[in-house]
Write a structure and sequence with these properties.
Strand content: 15-25%
CATH superfamily: LigB-like
Helix content: 40-55%
CATH class: Alpha Beta
Radius of gyration: 18 Å
Oligomer: single chain
Shape: globular
Largest sheet: 8 strands, mixed
CATH architecture: 3-Layer(aba) Sandwich
Number of domains: 1
Structural class: alpha/beta
Number of helices: 10
Length: 290
Amino acid sequence: MKLDLRRLRQDIHWLYMTEHLELGEEGTFRQLEEAHQWNLSSTLSEGGVIVFPHAGVADCGHQIAAAVHACLDSGADKVLLVSVLHAFSDEMEEARQRVAAGEDASQFKHWGVQGPGLVGRQDWRFDHVLTSWRHFWKAETERRGIEGPEVIERYPYLAGGKPENMPGIDELAEIAKDAVIVSTADPFHHGIGYGDAPEDSLHPHEGGLELARLRIQGGIDLIEAGNYWGYNQHCVDAKSDARDAGQVFRFLRGPMKGEIIDLVYSDAAELYKQPAPTWVAGALIEWKLD
């Protein structure tokens, strides 16, 4: 069944609003405290990258909060956030599929980098992807009584195995010279609601998380090797939404070694109105300069 992408976008925004209301101030600060189990600030200050998820905040909030702490504790004056940009229109989805099939990304009007302060397409304004990041950033900077470093959000689309050719990549390279870099990814979507056959759909605690770890590590291996096109195609197969963001931060920082620090899952059966198992893996990933 073909998805109504615009309706899905509306449903996700409603879900995020509901989840944040349920989380409340107490839940927000509880997750910020839980995130102190990791100290990832030196990874950023030494030129690495932290990748956090953007799935359900009740499940993944502590991972997002860990990235917030890492930025605030890194001593940086500037944060470059290389974000996912979801395909919430048929036109964007078609462009993504055609590039994955081998067509030249430059043929499509969505090709390039979007973000606040940039002219051109403004699809990023309607994306839910950084809702929870902004929530924890606001809560923690207010608790610390600081303004925090400048955060520059950028949303690449259609890297197509050649991130170095994307319009806007030169601006990102300039920003990256004196900024720490974080990124976001939901690197594995699985189950009936995501198009997997029922007999191939695993519940998270019945082999699903083991499969997720294996598939996510496969993507890490490709990025480590600088295999941008291979990673692009891996993301198609693993149903990862980070095909563009992953290529871009690897291009900006060069050779790195990636490690999954924490792995959880967020149920999505109700969102997609499909039977379980339908879920997304939430991974906190640390990338250190190689």
